[in-house]
Write a structure and sequence with these properties.
The structure holds two protein chains of two kinds. By secondary structure, chain A is α+β, with helices and mostly antiparallel strands. Chain A has ten helices and eight strands. The two termini of chain B are 20 Å apart. The relative contact order of chain B is 0.19. Classes of the chains: A alpha+beta, B alpha/beta.
């Protein structure tokens, strides 16, 4: 098993800023807002209205900004997006939301509005609905010690002919240290295409993505390609 | 050329107790495990019933430990049926919504990380392969089957066990309650009087193999996913996602929609899910085909409760049982449907003239959809 794919677009949100194959490269310091952005970040950086951005959870914010930096909406046409899968991995997952919701259990009324974000698939839905990605959506759980499962799953799906394009990535978003996890914000997304699909895509491609070594975090290398 | 993926073993732990037979026999007999809340009685939630594990299944086990322990019970049964394959080379896929919550709702170490539980499961089973885990809300179980089948089909693994489990706790019960999604009484999927979902504990296991000699006579012949791309908690009005997943899975199996003999539904009992699931599947089976209706379809959450991440595996076991029995059981709790009439919903057990291919569909928050085809 050693499939590879063509990288069509990539985007990054980390502690220093937002960058991606669209040409975006801004810092949080220049925006005057901390990661992963505030209500007006979409407008300021991408000149785009997003009515619900301010109330989605932290992982979803980071992923949406990374997708914009990848210019996801421009790389694929509507029919391609209709079949594009999403595979994203996380270690921390929805811990920030989990803790916030758990705190509300002590109150008469729980914070029901955030409960759906206690499921890591919900932030994938926030990407899917914004870009109309109607392929399979898979949230993969990993540990910090061994990453890259989402990229491998994406490559399997492409190699097996399940789809022609996959948006794969990783996301961790926690503003305060909690339960042994340090505060961190990092989202990397990479749009991959099967070779023949990549040829037909509007993008000329940014290079090949190979099956990652088990010891490496492949998203570190993908993040480097975003700047 | 992808390898054939055979079902080699099955295991279940449900509100009906320990074992696959307890689950299958009760569901086909029209029984329900939804009973007055006992273990969860202290949690404030607008429902009287839940499908808790009977107290004798895991006596003395703390609620937060149930996902691990129940999954291991299901694994034991599935591996026994599979003839005790070499566990060192057994791939492990774990599917759940919230896994171990002990550190979030208590002073334990569990932080809702499926992969950390997967590592414990793999170690307990003696697997030397790195496990994988998926958390795709209530479609987790079906997505877990797909993840395992994908590896076997590609030749990456020869045998795998898909484990799926979830337990009803205060976090989940009050979350669903706060959203107004719970039926105060037993849920009644597709019935005009339905008011929401009923929840349940559960764990399921399926052993998959590349070797026909391991098979119980059933294959995982197709799998697929989709996303509604519409709303993160509500379904697409036309059931677009579930219909897409269904059609893609059937195509992945190399079949036509007319080849599907029975359908196991997501069937939660919420007004929105059931209405849109019926439309989506009605469209999937009748648009561009000569069919006027779906094949006979059933749901089982009025019997087991919604077991969340475990549902896709437990309900796949029921779809397989329906194939083997050539019978679709009754939709318990359904008297009069107000949903799309193209969805064929038997209210009493119905014998099948042909029993070759079963389609299982599942949906979850985030618009996530999963579908798998089981063929005899």
């Amino acid at each position: 098993m050693n499939p590879s794919a063509t990288l069509l677009a990539c985007g990054l949100v980390d502690a220093s800023g937002i960058a991606g194959s669209r040409g975006t490269d801004v810092t949080w310091a220049s925006l005057g807002t901390p990661a992963p952005g505030g209500p007006s970040t979409m407008k300021h950086v991408f000149d785009k209205q997003d009515a619900t951005f301010r109330r989605i959870d932290l992982p979803a914010r980071a992923l949406v900004l990374a997708c914009e930096a990848a210019d996801l909406g421009a790389v694929l046409d509507e029919e391609q997006r209709n079949r594009t899968a999403i595979v994203v991995e996380t270690d921390i997952g929805s811990l920030a939301t989990d803790l916030a919701f758990a705190r509300s259990l002590g109150e008469e009324l729980v914070h029901a509005g955030i409960f759906p974000y206690s499921l890591t698939s919900t932030c994938l839905g926030e990407i899917a609905l914004r870009y109309k990605l109607r392929g399979a959506s898979v949230s993969v759980s990993v540990t910090a010690e061994r990453r890259g499962a989402a990229l491998r799953e994406a490559l399997r799906m492409l190699a097996g002919g399940e789809c022609e394009h996959v948006l794969t990535g990783t996301v961790e978003a926690l503003l305060e240290p909690a339960h042994g996890h340090e505060a961190q914000v990092r989202a990397v997304v990479a749009l991959l295409g099967r070779s023949e699909a990549a040829d037909a895509a509007r993008s000329a491609g940014l290079g090949e993505v190979a099956w990652p070594d088990e010891r490496d975090d492949p998203f570190v290398a993908l993040a480097r390609r975003c700047r | 050329m992808r390898r054939t993926v055979f079902v080699a073993g099955r295991g279940a732990v449900s509100g009906f107790g320990l074992g696959l037979c307890a689950l299958v026999d009760a569901v086909f007999a029209g029984e329900s495990a939804l009973r007055e809340r006992r273990r969860t009685a202290a949690y404030e939630a607008p429902t009287a019933v839940v499908g808790e594990l009977p107290p004798d299944v895991l006596p003395g086990v703390a609620e937060n430990d149930v996902p691990l322990r129940a999954a291991l019970l299901a694994a034991d049964e599935a591996l026994e049926e599979a003839g005790q394959p070499d566990r060192r080379r057994l791939g492990v896929i774990y599917a759940t919504t919230k896994a171990d919550m002990s550190g979030i709702c208590g002073d334990g170490r569990g932080l809702g990380s499926p992969q950390r539980l997967a590592l414990q499961l793999a170690a307990a089973l003696g697997s030397e392969l790195w496990p994988a885990s998926v958390s795709c809300a209530c479609a987790s179980g079906v997505q877990g089957v797909a993840a395992a089948a994908r590896r076997i089909a590609a030749g990456e693994w020869d045998r795998a066990i898909v484990l799926a489990s979830d337990v009803i706790n205060e976090f989940i019960l009050r979350g669903f309650g706060g959203m107004g999604a719970l039926d105060p009484e037993r849920c009644r999927p597709f019935d005009e009087s339905r008011r929401g979902v009923s929840l349940g504990d559960g764990a399921g296991a399926i052993v998959l193999s590349c070797a026909e000699r391991d098979s119980i006579g059933v294959r995982v012949s197709g799998w697929a996913g989709a996303n509604d791309a519409c709303h993160v908690t509500g379904p697409d009005y036309e059931g677009l996602g579930v219909g897409l997943a269904a059609r893609r899975a059937v195509a992945h199996a190399g079949l036509a929609m007319a080849d599907v003999d029975l359908l196991h539904l997501h069937a939660t009992g919420t007004r929105a899910n059931d209405k849109t699931e019926a439309i989506g599947l009605g469209n999937a089976f009748t648009s561009g085909t000569a069919l006027e209706r779906t094949p006979p379809a059933f749901g089982s959450k009025s019997q087991t409760g919604h077991t969340l991440g475990a549902a896709g595996v437990l309900e796949s076991l029921l779809a397989i049982a329906a194939l083997q029995r050539a019978t679709v059981p009754a939709n318990v709790g359904l008297t009069t449907s107000d949903c799309d009439p193209r969805l064929d919903l038997p209210t009493s057990p119905r014998a099948l003239r042909r029993s070759k291919h079963a389609l299982k569909v599942a949906s979850g928050f985030g618009g996530v959809q999963g579908a798998a085809v089981y063929s005899s």
